[in-house]
Amino acid sequence: MAQPMLKKDDDRDDEVDYHPFFGIEKGAVLQEARVFNDPQIDPRRCSQVITKVLYILNQGDTLTQIEGTEVFFSVTKLFQSKDPGLRRMMYLMIKELSPSAGEVIMVTSSLMKDMNSKTDMYRANAIRVLSRIIDGTILAQIERYLKQAIVDKNPVVASAALVSGIHLLQTSPEVVKRWSNEVQEAVQSRASLVQFHALALLYQIRQHDRLAVTKLVTSLTKGSVRSPLAQCLLIRYASQVIRESGANQAGERPHFDYLESCLRHKAEMVILEAARAITELSGVTSRELTPAITVLQLFLSSSKPVLRFAAVRTLNKVAMTHPLAVTNCNIDMESLISDSNRSIATLAITTLLKTGNESSVDRLMKQITNFMADIADEFKIVVVDAIRSLCLKFPLKYRSLMNFLSNILREEGGFEYKKAIVDSIVTLIRDIPEAKEIGLFHLCEFIEDCEFTYLSTQILHLMGNEGPRTSDPSKYIRYVYNRVILENATVRAAAVSTLAKFGALVDSLKPRIFVLLRRCLFDSDDEVRDRATLYLKVLGGEAVVGETEKETNEFLFGSFDIPLVNLEASLKNYEPSETPFDISSVPREVRSQPLAEKKAAGKKPTGPAGPTSGPVVSAIDAYEKSLSSIPEFAAFGKLFKSSAPVELTEAETEYAVSVVKHIYDGHVILQFNCSNTIPEQLLENVTVLIDASEAEDFAEVYTKPLRSLPYDSPGQTFVAFEKPDGVPAVGKFSNILKFIVKEVDPASGEVEEDGVEDEYQLEELEVTYADYMLKVPVSNFRNAWEGMDPESERVDEYGLGARESLAEAVNAVISILGMHPCEGTEVVANNSRSHTCLLSGVFIGNVKVLVRLSFGISGPKEVAMKLAVRSDDPDVSDRIHEIVASG
Amino acid sequence: MGHEFRDYSRESCPTVKNILLLDSEGKRVAVKYYSDDWQTHAAKLAFEKSVFTKTLKTNARSEAEITMFDGYIVVYKFIHDLHFFVTAGDDENELILASVLQGFTESVALLLRNDVEKRTALENLDLILLCIDEIVDGGIILETDPNNIAGKVATNAVDGAVPFSEQTISQALATAREHLARSLLK
């Protein structure tokens, strides 16, 4: 520090508590604000008081409505003063108070006067204040002035009007759109910010007119835009036009030359905007990328952190889809690992991890090790994630990467960070068979000294599943049993289960496991003792959980695939009785929210006997109850699936009807939820007349009419069909709502005696294969897949033709099958050329089905798909192929 | 007015979500929010605390620095005991933001005649508030040139007697440059 500075600091020590607003208090300031009402206005004093009020508001204090109104009224009195400084503070104050419509009227005339003043600064500010506080009617009065102001020769006034236009466009678009000509003139302004504001407004006025935007971009890219900010806008609009024009032209993209020319602009913000736009073009080629990458590479060695950050962030994104294009920057990138800005360093590391080749992995890991010590946990997690994907990319390098992960696992860190590391190790164990033993060993060491119960139990569970299948299972026993001695009850219970799994799978260890489990019988926690007792009996063959050893293992290892909320709801419903609780009766469908018609169902005269149970009952339970209470449906057996409601009418029509499809083994019930939105009508004897000629396998067996449908009180009518047992029959149904309509006097509620028969056309509905499939998740797809009979597997390949995108094709197949996407595989990475999607579900007849879909896309958007199915019933595997082949 | 804040999509226009001027303990000197992302006073304070602690240990004195978290990018610079921040969504052009920050710090330097510290800033809070008001209007960048910003604020100064009457803007700028050069040589 230079001398004078030091001296000044010394001076200040004496009055270290000095604060111009020290001890300031709202009540006192509002008292002071009375000075605004003085007949003789003291501008300086008034400005100070306004500043004090603004200070209080800025610190987060608020004025009550009365206080606000009072201050506002006294501030308006200050318009009498001619002092420009005071006026400026008043403008600020009025904006900050955001007055109500009634109060606004008090100031509009004064502000309109300022808007026409000779002082440019008054005009600019009055426009900004007015546009902030007025409503549509006042806008109509001042529109003329605003239009003039847009083309004012003073750039500050023009900008104020244009920016106000951008704000007003949100509330009064029809007014602002009339200013188009003036705005267009302003785009040609010599003042750089006027040009920027004008272009922003012009685009927003026209943004819904594609042709107009294209014309705008075409004319302006020829070179009349000087302002760098405006140039950035133009780049955004141009890339929008490119995006919308699609890839129909082979090779040449419109406006690409313009984007490329912007890479040579003198303003860095324009270069960055253009480079980023190019890298984000869909299906960008490496030839198109090269010039953009080159300018970004130059930025990497800039002295400005913001520039380095912007460049490395963009390159990091490019590396996800085009790693090869970024490799040229690797040397510059490596020097950024030591950047003092840790965001930049982290982005550099993760980029390198994406672009690195197999030979550079070891060197990179060495550099990262030094780096990890001094960054925050949130950055470390990003790095760990990048290392996991690197390891999956170069499985041969698992040894050094696994070592790295185990080293950082031993160091200090919070839960999220440790969890990210453990998750990564678990992924590697799952996907790289060679890494299994070394990975398990690292995890064993970790739980010796792990403070997070959640992680310890996860790891113990994994060890129970994987440990017995390793070359030397006995070496893990010590680690597991140590947990029983040293840990809290939750971890001890998990360790007991793990021990039991070793005992079940490794016969040679069984006697030793028995000894250890018996010790657990004396544990202080009852869950631990219960588990030990149960496992001792099961493994000792005393308790019968299954006929064969296979079933015993199923009991120990089987994944628990019933949603816990459903189980909870069913258990709450269960009334203790002679019949034991049957876990197979718990619905497996995952339901997001209980549907609204549950309440209506309960109100029906034939509704369930007794009060319905608590709100946790899932929709399917509610459906099942209300359906089984209708005697005609009682014999249909167990409800397999109910679809989500499908609307059969447009929104806001006279009658709203939606349908829910209930699927049984040999029947389908269509439940029509009807509501009457006309207060003057009462509908009676409501039915749906169905034409099932396009649904050959279905035969109508029963129609349950809705006796009366008053205004605003929804009700249901049902139609039941018979179909071949267990067969997923599909078809189309056309529907007409039939009813007797009676006039109602809405005032008295009196209903006319005589009704008229009438009908109302509904939209068609379809029963599809997806209706026969329950979305049932599996906890671990790979385990579930391997647990199924390979004999049941059916594989075939399909060409899906030209599709909009890979993601669209993936979604289409998922919705045809109606299955549950596992492990987030329904998400397709942008720009990827291939994708694997994992699906699980239960097909009618309670047949578990797993599907592995591999998609690939060729140049002209041709999508090909390989479909592999495993299921409990090979016929169903064939059926899935039929569904896809016919879809 | 419930609709004071409007968030514009990226296609429309570069948008600033807030401008913060905090002291060396993270307390407010002046702040202005342009986005609904933080609806309550508590949410704003939490954001300020988080920005302040995340950037505290960095060296943002000679060059503006940048950080990214929770879906925001923040460019910032420290001068004496004042911490200047400009925030935007994480898809914004960092260099546009940097130009806003530069407009803010340099115009404040001009207005406070290089005495950029908390005490002076509070003593001239009216100028600081007007300065922020001239840089961004409802999230849209109004002006980034420090001379223009300071010029617009100073012509309004009370009595016409405070800072800029005895010093023209070009003079002030010259002293600022000189001062900057000196601080670089240190």
Task: Describe what this molecule looks like in 3D.
The complex is a heterodimer of chains A (887) and B (186). Chain A is α+β, with helices and mostly antiparallel strands and 887 residues long. Chain A contains 39 helices and 17 strands. In chain A, the strands form 3 sheets. In chain A, strands 1, 2, 3, 4, 6 and 8 form a 6-stranded antiparallel beta sheet that branches. In chain A, helix 9 runs parallel beside helix 12, helix 12 (192-206) runs parallel beside helix 14 (228-245) and helix 26 packs parallel to helix 28 (474-486). The N and C termini of chain A lie far apart (76 Å). With 186 residues, chain B is α+β, with helices and mostly antiparallel strands. Chain B has 6 helices and 7 strands. In chain B, the strands form 2 sheets. Chain B has a 5-stranded antiparallel beta sheet with strand order 2-1-5-4-3, sandwiched between helices. In chain B, helix 2 (94-111) runs antiparallel to helix 4 (125-135), helix 2 (94-111) packs across helix 5 and helix 4 (125-135) packs across helix 5 (146-154). The longest helix of chain B is centred in the middle third of the chain and has 18 residues, at 94-111. The N and C termini of chain B lie far apart (50 Å). The chains are: A alpha+beta (887), B alpha+beta (186). At the A-B interface, helix 3, helix 5, helix 7, helix 9 and helix 12 of A face strand 2, helix 1, strand 3, helix 2 and helix 3 of B.
What does the secondary structure layout of this molecule look like, with pairings?
The complex is a heterodimer of chains A (887) and B (186).
Chain A: H1 3-13, H2 26-32, H3 43-58, H4 65-77, H5 84-97, H6 101-115, H7 120-133, H8 136-150, H9 155-171, H10 173-176, H11 180-187, H12 192-206, H13 210-220, H14 228-245, H15 256-262, H16 268-279, H17 286-300, H18 305-321, H19 323-326, H20 330-335, H21 342-355, H22 361-372, H23 377-393, H24 398-410, H25 415-431, H26 436-447, H27 453-466, H28 474-486, H29 489-505, H30 510-520, H31 526-540, H32 549-557, H33 564-573, H34 597-603, H35 619-628, H36 631-634, E1 641-642, E2 646-647, E3 655-663, E4 667-676, E5 681-694, E6 699-704, E7 706-709, E8 715-722, E9 731-743, E10 756-761, E11 765-767, E12 773-774, H37 781-786, E13 794-802, H38 806-817, E14 820-821, E15 834-843, E16 847-857, E17 862-871, H39 874-886
Chain B: E1 18-23, E2 28-33, H1 41-56, E3 65-69, E4 72-79, E5 82-89, H2 94-111, H3 118-123, H4 125-135, E6 136-137, E7 140-141, H5 146-154, H6 169-185
GO molecular function, one term (chain A): structural molecule activity
Subunit structure (chain A): Oligomeric complex that consists of at least the alpha, beta, beta', gamma, delta, epsilon and zeta subunits.
Protein name (chain A): Coatomer subunit gamma
